[in-house]
Design goal:
By secondary structure, this protein is an alpha+beta fold. It contains 12 helices and 5 strands. α4 runs parallel beside α6 (about 140-160). It catalyses: ATP + protein L-histidine = ADP + protein N-phospho-L-histidine. GO terms for molecular function: kinase activity. This is histidine kinase.
């Protein structure tokens, strides 16, 4: 097989976004506190509450005071004019908690101002803010009903009381009401879109973090399950032979040391690589150069894997018939699937022989791991043997566009067959 020893780059990982999952989660945790405290884009909350109140007061109450003062109107006329101008701005203070009643009060004040007082000539701005607030805060029915009722009352009342209305004023007032309601609808729609975008963005961050956790769990399971199984087997052999064959026991201890060192290096490599990737651009304090990186597992390590699995009780044969070098992501998946399959053979099969076969076709690569195990539990594919390890192997194959088949063979034993496309798009 062509040599594939190399140090992986970030582009070799099967999922380029997965390594950023923890960084995204950290960023979300940093910002979630601000969101819970009410921090959001746009003006602060106090400004959104008090700015309409202040503007309405300046546009309505100040002109009303000026007009009544200059005209020297009697107190019984001046007070209602100023009071009606003041009702709307005061009502807007409660627009956040009671948007429906506020728009009804503002509409009533506007209708009374038009029908019963000479007015200051200033537009009743509080009504516009009340309509927009009610529409945005989910009280659209209040706004529509209040405006419709107020408009009918003004038209009927003006005809009954003989209040003269110029046709142009009627038209402009109607257009103004329509424009205000359209503005309210536009603001409401924009708010819904922003909320939907934020929810989708949060879900993407959560999905990325979840995918990263799954990937870490899969990598650590494959490394630790295999290594601990080997250590367990070698330790049992050493204990069994320590008195009768101390040289064999010493060899088993050496294998335990080598296996544990390899496992530690691979765990450091996985965690170091994730730390260095997650710290880029997210303000992390870790120094990527300090991360302990080891070469990514590939098919060049299969012979060593098979040799470490083989014992006097279990003979493992490797048949590598590949004529080309698969991409790094495919090599990693094939190696981990072979590693997990052989680990299951050691732990569950009670087999005396196993075979690892690698072949390639025009459209895909195929890995087959078979054994002659007699364990009923292993051949039946019970939850113990088809749990996280089997799930991880299946996920690795499917992430690259392939599939995995596992089950008992017709002649006895168990077989795991992974098929990965030659062009996985990774």
């Amino acid at each position: 097989m062509p040599s594939t020893d190399r140090t992986p780059s970030a582009g070799d990982t099967p999922d380029p976004w997965a390594n950023r999952g923890d960084a995204l989660a950290r960023w979300e945790r940093r910002t979630s506190g601000d969101a819970a405290a009410g921090t959001r884009s746009g003006p602060p909350r106090w400004a959104r509450l008090w700015l309409p109140v202040v503007l309405s007061f300046l546009v309505q109450v100040i002109p009303a005071l000026v007009v009544t003062g200059r005209a020297r109107l009697p107190i019984d006329i001046a007070v209602p004019i100023v009071a009606l101008a003041l009702v709307g701005p005061l009502a807007l203070i409660g627009a956040r908690r009671f948007p429906g009643p506020v728009v009804a009060i503002a509409t009533a004040a506007t209708a009374a101002d038009l029908l019963f007082t000479p007015g200051s000539g200033a537009p009743y701005l509080a009504l516009a803010f009340a309509v927009i607030s009610a529409t945005v805060r989910g009280a659209r029915r209040w706004a529509f009903a209040s405006i419709a009722a107020g408009w009918v009352v003004v038209l009927v009342g003006s005809a009954t009381l003989g209040v003269p209305w110029h046709p142009g004023r009627v038209l402009l007032t109607a257009l103004g009401i329509i424009v205000v309601m359209l503005i309210g609808e536009a603001v409401r729609t924009r708010g819904e879109r922003v909320a939907a975008f934020q929810a989708a963005s949060k879900k993407r961050r959560e999905d990325a973090a979840a995918a990263e956790r799954v990937r870490i769990a899969r990598e650590l399971h494959d490394v630790l399950a295999h290594s601990l199984s080997q250590i367990n087997v070698q330790a049992g052999m050493g204990l069994h032979l320590i008195d009768s064959q101390p040289d064999k026991a010493r060899e088993a201890l050496g294998n335990i040391k080598a296996t544990s060192k390899t496992a530690l290096d691979e765990v450091r490599g996985v965690l170091g690589f994730l730390r260095s990737e997650g710290s880029v651009g997210w303000g992390a304090e870790e120094n990527p150069s300090e991360a302990a990186l080891v070469p990514q597992a590939d098919l060049s390590r299969l012979p060593s894997l098979v040799k470490s699995i083989s014992t006097d009780e279990l003979s493992v044969a490797l048949h590598n018939r590949l004529t080309s070098e698969p991409p790094p992501g495919v090599q990693l998946a094939l190696y981990r699937i072979a590693q997990e399959s052989l680990t299951n053979v050691v732990r569950h099969s009670a087999a005396t022989s196993a075979e690892v076969l690698l072949v390639e076709h025009p459209s895909d690569y195929v890995l087959a791991v078979t054994d002659n195990g007699t364990s009923t539990q292993h051949r039946a594919g019970t939850p113990e043997t088809s749990g996280r390890g089997m799930l991880g192997m299946r996920e690795r194959a499917e992430l690259l566009g392939g599939h995995l088949d596992a089950g008992p063979t017709s002649g006895g034993g168990f077989s795991v067959v992974a098929t990965l496309p030659r062009r996985s798009g990774q």
